[in-house]
Amino acid sequence: MDIIANYGTTLVLVAALFGFLMAWGIGANDVANAMGTSVGTKSLTIRQAIIIAMIFEFAGAYLAGGEVTATIRNGIIDSNAFVDSPDLLVLGMIASLLAAGAWLILASYFGWPVSTTHSIIGAIVGFAVVSIGPEAVQWSKFGGIVGSWVVTPAISGIIAYFMFISVQKLIFNTDDPLNNAKRYVPFYMFLTSLVICLVTIKKGLTHVGLHLTNGEGILLSVAISIAVAFAGWLYIRGQQYNPQDDSKMHFANVEKVFGILMVITACAMAFAHGSNDVANAIGPLSAVASIVASGGEIAGQASIAWWILPLGGIGIVIGLATMGEKVMATVGTGITHLTPSRGFAAQLATAATVVIASGTGLPISTTQTLVGAVMGVGLARGIAALNLGVLRNIVVSWIITLPAGAILAIAIFYVLQACFS
C-alpha cells in the first residue's frame, strides 16, 4: 500500500506509457491481420489499407471502446487474492503491459501474426503466480484458450473452404461467369452485409448505448442486408461489359466485384476490432488508474478515465502505420496466393466465426481465426497451395506466445518491485 501512496502519479504515468506501447503492438500485429488479405489480393495498396484501418480502428476504439471495462482482463486471475496487497496488482499490471507489448512488437518485427489477447493473458498469469501464487489464477479458463488454438482456425477454415468452393462452382467454373456473377453476387452481398451488421452490433455498438436484444439485432441486420443486396443487384445489372471479351477479362471483372466486398468487410472488421481488442491495452491501464485513484481499493469494474481511450486508439494507429507491413505480407501473401474472391471468402469466414463465438461464448483469437480462414481457402486448391514453412512458423509463434508473455512479465515485475520498494 505504501508504494501506491508514495508513487501513485508515477505509477499511472508509467502504466500509460506501457499501455501506449501495448496499443502500438496491437496495431502492428492484430490490425495488420485484418487488412492483410485486402493488401495481398491487391484490392488495396498498403497505404490505402493503413489509412482505412486508421480511420475505422480509431473510430471503433474511441467511439465504441466502452465506458466501463473489467479491471482484470478476461477474469483470468482472481482479484480478491490481491485485496490485501493492491500494490502487487498495480506493479503486475504495469509489468504485463510492457511484457505483452514488447512481445507483440518483436513478433511484428519477424512478421508473425500472434494473438494479442493471449499475449496479455500470459503476462498476467506470469506475474500472478510469482506474486501471490498459483491459487490466484483461474486455471479452468486455460482449457478454452488452448482449445481455441485448434477450434477457431478449424471453424473459420471450414467456412472459408465451402464459401470459396461455392464461388468457384456457381461463378468461375461456368461457361458464363459474368452473367452468373450478376445472378449470385447479390446473395454474397446479402451474406456479407448480414455478418458485418451482426459483428458491428455484437462487438461495436453495445458500448455506445444501442442495446438491442438478439432478436432485434438479427431483424435489423436482415433488413439492412436485403437493402444492400438489392442495391448490389441494381449496381451489377447496370454495369456494361463487352461480350466479346475473353474469359480472362470476364474473370477480372468478377474479381473486381469481390474486391469491393473485401474492402467493405475489412472496414467493418477494423471497426469491430478497434472496439473490442483495445481493451487488451486499456483494461490493465484502467485497473492501475482506478486502484491508484481509490487509494488501493480494487473494484470489479472501473470507469475509464477520459484520456485512456484516445491513448489506446492513437497507439493502435501508430503501430499499424510504423510496423504493420510485415504481418500484412505474411497473412496476405505468405500463407497462400490470394485473389479478391479467395480473400473475400477468408474475410467473410473470419467475420462469421466472430459472430458464432460471440453467440456461444467460444474463446476466440481474431488472428488465429483469420489464419485458419486463409488456410481453408488455400486447401480448397490443394495442400500444395499452402506455404507449410510459413504455417509452421505461425503455429510455433502461437504456442510460444503464452509462456513468452509470462516469462517477460515475471522478469519485469521483479525489476519494478526493486525500483519502487
What key phrases describe this protein's structure?
mainly alpha, two-stranded antiparallel sheet, 2 strands
Explain this structure to me?
With about 425 residues, the protein is mainly α. Helix content is about 75%, strand content about 0%. It is built from 14 helices and 2 strands, in the order ααβαααααααβααααα. It has a two-stranded antiparallel sheet with strand order 1-2. Helix 1 (about 1-40) runs parallel beside helix 13, helix 6 (about 175-205) packs parallel to helix 8 (about 245-275) and helix 8 packs parallel to helix 12 (about 340-360). It starts with a helix and ends with a helix. The mean pLDDT is about 85.
Overall shape: it is elongated
Oligomer: single chain
Alpha plus pi helix count: 14
Strand content: under 5%
The overall strand count is 2
Helix content: over 70%
Strand-helix topology:
Blueprint: H1 2-40, H2 46-64, E1 68-70, H3 86-110, H4 116-131, H5 140-172, H6 177-204, H7 214-238, H8 247-277, H9 279-293, E2 301-303, H10 308-323, H11 325-334, H12 340-360, H13 366-379, H14 388-420
Antiparallel strand pairs: 1-2
Helix pairs in contact: 1-2, 1-3, 1-8, 1-9, 1-10, 1-11, 1-12, 1-13, 2-8, 2-10, 3-4, 3-9, 3-14, 4-14, 5-12, 5-13, 6-7, 6-8, 6-12, 8-12, 12-13
Describe what is shown at a glance:
It is built from 14 helices and 2 strands, in the order ααβαααααααβααααα.
